[in-house]
Design a protein that fits this description.
The chain is of the alpha/beta class and 417 residues long. It is built from 13 helices and 15 strands.
């Protein structure tokens, strides 16, 4: 079927803090943006030699996961296996979006096509990472297509919910403060009918309950990583010197009430603890290591749906300018600077800090001044709004250079790659 998706459709939801609900995505734009990641890494220089190493990326269909996969394949010549749960195309659906699947599906399609062209193996296993049967399927794939051994694993899972295999029920996380309410700054959407521009707004988030804290730790914490490593060790598919990298986010002083001091902060602390414990296990079992990587704030598909994140990101993009790193730039710098001939440089807590540039005083001080000076009802700067919305639209395949959005595409052809 021929389809056209000329414009990014979205709406702001005031009741939930003006979070942005996307209504569509563009498969051609998503594939083009994903292919461009591999091209960027290729253009960074050096002659690629297939290394023979095999890496697993859990959560590799977007954000830091897809970026790490592009770097591993295009800069380090590694074979990559992705695990992610993405909406698959449904040709029988009358809904245009369901018919073509999801951004993650098309991102995987394009990255794997590009990495295979470089001579590396690139595959995806679809499913919920919390499902024990999925782990067995991944182990079988490692044995069949990746030489039976993994040299590394990038854990970049950021799902809002997960399966509890003991009950078959879905467990959801909660992005809430811990112990007391927290007020976050947001901005409203532009009203195209009245011509009113975006405005500053505020939302008070109530504290999470103990039950929500437990569920958030289950979904976002380190217990699932330990179960994966245990299964991979038991299956004897980890190579000597195996490295585990868990991607985390500590946040910053301006959002610590929701992040580091919130329920998700408990989960991330658990991830850091489990990663440290796994470092000792891997050293003893395979002479390997585990590192927790604190990533910087970036624009991803999830960015629009988290209260306060669009406001912070819009100002961060403006303050950092050319210094801002998207997920690909961050992952490229990480592998180049921290995983060359020498080991990574860690902070006093044993963490690999890729958020170092964002958290520098020259960035955080002007951000704090802007936050203090923004009051509900104030006009939100339209250039900042436009820049963030363009970056957010690009995560959905819109505003991507070289794509004709007025043109029709064949839904079956684009889903077949």
């Amino acid at each position: 079927m021929k389809l056209a998706l000329p414009k990014f459709q979205f709406r702001f939801v005031p009741a939930f803090g003006n979070v942005i609900h996307p209504g569509n995505f563009h498969p051609v734009g998503t594939q083009r943006a994903a292919s461009a990641m591999v091209e960027r890494i290729e253009g960074a220089g050096g002659t690629l030699e297939v290394s023979g190493q095999s890496w697993l990326v859990v959560g590799g269909s977007g954000g830091f996961g897809s970026a790490a996969r592009a770097v591993l394949g295009a800069a380090r010549g590694a074979h990559t296996l992705n695990v992610s749960l993405d909406g698959q195309p449904n040709p029988e659906s009358s809904n245009k979006v369901r018919k073509i699947g999801s951004p993650g599906f098309h991102r995987n399609l394009a990255i794997e096509r590009s990495l295979r062209a470089l001579g590396t193996t690139a595959r995806t296993v679809q499913g919920d990472a919390f499902d024990p049967e999925l782990r067995e399927s991944v182990i079988a794939t490692i044995r069949e297509h990746f030489g039976g051994k993994l040299h590394g694993l990038v854990w970049s899972l950021a799902a809002p919910r997960a399966l509890d295999p003991r009950t078959g029920a879905t467990v959801s996380s909660a992005l809430k403060p811990l112990g007391r309410p927290v007020t976050v700054k947001t901005f409203t959407g532009r009203d195209e009918r009245s011509g009113q521009g975006p405005q500053v707004a505020e939302l008070e988030l109530p504290p999470g309950t103990p039950e929500e804290a437990i569920r958030t730790i289950y979904v976002m914490g380190g217990g699932i990583v330990s179960r994966w490593i245990g299964a991979l060790l038991a299956a004897d598919v980890l190579a000597d010197g195996f490295r585990l990298l868990t991607i985390s986010y500590r946040g910053n002083p301006l959002n610590e009430g929701v992040y580091r001091k919130g329920l998700i902060g408990l989960a991330k602390a658990d991830l850091e603890f489990e990663t440290s414990a796994l470092d000792h296990v891997l050293q003893q079992r395979v002479g390997g290591n585990a590192y927790c990587v604190e990533g910087p704030a970036v624009v991803t598909e999830a960015s629009g749906g988290i209260p306060g994140v669009p406001f912070y990101m819009a100002h961060l993009l403006d303050v950092m300018g050319e210094r801002f790193e998207d997920p690909l730039a961050s992952m490229h710098r990480m592998f180049e600077q921290h995983f060359g001939s020498e080991g990574p440089t860690l902070d006093e807590e044993g963490l690999l800090r890729m958020d170092d540039r964002e958290l520098s005083p020259e960035v955080q001080e002007p951000l704090a001044q802007r936050f203090d000076g923004a009051h509900p009802g104030d006009a939100f700067p339209e250039p900042l709004y436009d820049r963030f919305m363009r970056a957010y639209a690009q995560t959905r395949g819109f505003d991507v250079e070289g794509v004709d959005y007025e043109a029709e595409f064949d839904s079956e052809e684009v889903c077949a790659g």
